[in-house]
Amino acid sequence: MRLFRSLEKGWEESCDAAISHLLRSCLSRSPKEQAGAALAAQGAAPALGLPADTGRLKKHITLLCDRLGML
User: What is the DSSP string of the chain?
Assistant: First the structure.
């Protein structure tokens, strides 16, 4: 996943994309998800857009903390 800094993208979009990538790759629970994330990383990166709210980011941060706590 490629992240580029610009004035149109805030920290929320960048953090959500990075956390989502971690949850789908090295912190995924199944090898199938890890393989899918590796293939997706080779393709085109999805465009980051302004979120409607921060609920998705909060959910991903919670999942990240939970999975890191299991290590």
Answer: ------TTS-HHHHHHHHHHHHHHTTT-SSHHHHHHHHHHHHSPPPPP---S-SHHHHHHHHHHHHHHHH-
